[in-house]
Amino acid sequence: MTRRRQDRMLGILLRRGDWMTAATLADQLGVTPRSVRSYVTAVNARVPDGDAIESGPAGYRALPTAAAVLHAGTEPGTPRQRLHEIVRALLDADDGIDVHEMADRLHVSSATLESDLGRVRSLLSGPGPAAEGSGLALERQGSRLWLAGTELARRRFVSRLVHDEMDDGAFDLASLRRAADALAVPSAALGAFKADLVAALGRLGYFVNELAASDVVLHVAIAADRVAQGHALEAAHGDPDPTRERIADAIGELARTHFRAELGRGDRLHLAALVLTRIVVPGAQEEPGGANPDPAIEAAVSAAVSRAAAGYLVDIAHEDFVQRLALHVQNLVYRAREQAWSRNPLTRTLKATYPMIFDVAVSIAGELSETLGVPIRDDEIAYIAMHVGGRLERSRRAETTLTATIVCPGYYELHELLRSSVDRSLGRAIEVTTVETRVDVDWDAIGTDLVLTTIEPPVPSERIVRIQPFLTDADVERVTAVAARVRRTRRLGRLRAELARYFAPGAFVRGIDASGGEEGVIRHLGELLVAQGVVGDDYVESTIERERLSSTAFTETLAVPHALRMTATRTAIALAVAEQPIAWGDGRVNVVALVAFSESDREAFQTVFEQFVEVFGEPENAQRLIRRGTDLSSFLDELAAVIDG
């Protein structure tokens, strides 16, 4: 039982904010329900007075004290804490460390220290967030160990370790401070430095990307610490322009004020470059012409956007959108070449909530990666998805607006006052198209999504809401709740109709062999569709390529691998269900739905894609389908039951 797994369980409960069964938690953690109960006991033991997790008939739920437990520091003497001390010692010592002296300092045996060193090597060169492009190697001669690599590589490695220590999905300054403290990076002044940096950049005419600002502040703290240890950057990359010089001067002054560090010109210019490529976009005071993207990058973005717009039938191919995205991609290219990735704390949320928008972003990123010759990671794809989502938000909001009829028998201007109140309180969710002022209204002839009535209807209906002549807060809450139900029923009703004809008979696998990883599962399901003439081998290879761009595990239980090109002869879904979760990307899933889309069914793409993911976004729905869907027929029956509520 590990502290890390306990913390992961606690993070899941905090994100969920509601009851979760031991079985659901066990599936998401890849352990048994018995282990979950042990983790709960261990977590509650960390609270001096009371508990962090509440137990009940519905399972487990995080209590208000849970956040404090999750945020508590690493316990002394644990492997995690020893790892931090070893890394810190290696970073600080130019001539390396002696393994025997380090073992004595940590009060462990030589064998234990060698095991810890194996973890350090894994971080430097193995899989995982801290390993990507570390540029460092652990070298040894006799009992002496040292890190080989550049100063920039050392700083990037510390930054990745800090992010690896942060709460899952968190990006607030409190989490950043705790993670920085674990690696002895000065963190006390992070908040004040960030506030002053944002203000200084505003005075220089920039709008700040708050999602990435904390990351840059962390780099400044790391730079201040490294300079204090005698490890300054002597030279900066590239030729500084006046804008970069001004930002560098501002950073130098703020570092002196908040970290009491005298940053040299190399450090100041390096940090200014990070600011320019990560957290700012030009504002009104930007120099003339400074906001224009490189023509080659703008052309590449325009081509990628046009292809995605045509392939997904989304309205994004506009000049203003292309130019804004091109400015972002220009900075992205610089970050990719410098391996100075920008983190995005909303990546998981965007992927799970807006899978179609994320997929459009994957399509754009894939083409840009090939055209511009740079890798594009999930966090960077999420930023592209935010651009795409922002462009589509207006049309998406129009699609989700429900029509409504107000039934309010006339008495002076009462119906006019009621309509005004409804528009004022609910105007973003519903659109009143008709007002009936008769008592003998023809209820069957009302065709709007909702009916808001001040009189009792002859027959109750899920879309009819009884309200008061003078709208109350309770009325607003009831209408909002009914509107949400109607909206969901409408969405999932379309899904039920589409899925019934898309699931391919004979393409259902219960208990699939996952020993070949994601690629093996995709090939297995792909062969079933190839045998039915739905797709060719090229579609299967294209699906594997899409998976390499970004994991299609859109929820904690479901992966939806698919190709970026809709070249199937007809739209069909091959399904694999595993009672025990299988590894997929950075997580684990129980259901894999390989979707083959045809050109003629492009308009169905968003319906099938997003609503299918929505169903599996609820753990209870997912577990019901996993447990009871023993074959295709029973799976579809359970899916219909879940959709119908």
**CATH-defined fold name of the largest domain:** Mannitol-specific EII, Chain A
The level-1 CATH class of the largest domain: Alpha Beta
Q: Tell the overall outline.
A: globular
Whole-number count of domains = 6
Strand content: 5-15%
Helix content: 55-70%
Structural class by helix and strand composition: alpha/beta
Our count of helices gives: 25
Instruction: Give the low-pLDDT segments.
Output: 126-132, 167-171, 283-290
Largest sheet: 4 strands, parallel
Straight-line N-to-C gap: 38 Å
Which architecture of the largest domain would the CATH scheme give at its second level? 3-Layer(aba) Sandwich
Q: State the total count of DSSP E strands.
A: 15
Tell me the strand order in the biggest sheet: 9-8-10-11
The CATH homologous superfamily of the largest domain corresponds to Mannitol-specific EII, Chain A
Please compute the radius of gyration using only Cα atoms: 28 Å
Q: What is the residue-mean pLDDT, rounded to a whole number?
A: 82
